[in-house]
Write a structure and sequence with these properties.
Elements lengths: L14 H9 L17 H15 L8 H13 L2 H4 L11 H9 L13 H19 L4 H17 L4 H21 L13 H11 L3 H13 L3
């Protein structure tokens, strides 16, 4: 399912470029959600940065279209995000995003552009996050799980496009959940939803900017 009628030719990004970008967002030792084994770790770094930016904005009720537009504007303030934009890029359309957020497919069996193996990885991520949340697990357990599943994705026999999309999805979610731990102490807990996984993975199969925007939007939008 295409999220917009725009070009999806993402500029080629080498591993070296990703590492350079990551270095610009250094984290304090011992307080990092990073996974250096994931070549798309900088996707999550930008998600974390945009969530920080969004949380600094004045509180207020915003429509989904406004949240998408605002998140895109925050993204373009980062040159690392600008460098990822395909030619003639358009942000995902609010109507399509609303369908994903309102009717997420918990089993990832239909309505996605992933293979059976890809959908199995998405189901595993959603199920494990549910289990960890029910167990009131701390974020470092979430991080350990993502490092494990990302290793499995790297080793799996998937197409390069699908492997890339799954690694982008995992990176974005890993940092988005980490961002939850930065909240004021009384609210410092990670939160996830099936819609968060569905939106992020839908964006990832299109291009990296869509993955970043949809991950952030699915975390901050309040109907």
């Amino acid at each position: 399912m295409s999220l917009c009628s725009c070009s999806t030719d993402t500029p080629e990004v080498t591993a070296g470029a990703w590492e350079q970008n990551a270095a610009r967002f250094a984290y304090k030792s011992g307080n990092s959600p990073a996974n250096p084994a994931n070549p798309y770790d900088s996707t999550g770094i930008l998600v974390d940065a945009l969530l920080d930016d969004y949380h600094l904005l004045p509180e207020g009720k915003r429509s989904l279209a406004q949240v998408i537009e605002l998140t895109e504007s925050l993204g373009t303030a980062h040159e690392e995000f600008q460098a990822l934009l395909p030619d003639n890029y358009q942000a995902p359309e609010a109507g399509i995003v609303a369908q994903i957020l309102d009717n997420p497919n918990p089993d990832f069996t239909v309505g996605t552009d992933y293979s059976a193996k890809g959908k199995e990885h998405l189901r595993s991520i959603a199920l494990e996050l549910q289990i960890l949340k029910l167990a009131d697990a701390p974020y470092h357990d979430v991080l350990d799980y993502f490092i494990e599943i990302e290793g499995e994705i790297l080793a799996d026999n998937l197409s390069e496009q699908e492997k890339e999309a799954l690694l982008i999805t995992a990176s974005a979610l890993r940092y988005a959940l980490y961002n939850d731990t930065k909240k004021p102490k009384r609210d410092r807990d990670w939160e996830w939803s099936t819609a968060n996984v569905a939106a992020t993975s839908s964006g990832s199969i299109e291009n990296i900017p869509d993955a970043i925007l949809l991950c952030v939007v699915s975390k901050v939008y309040e109907p």
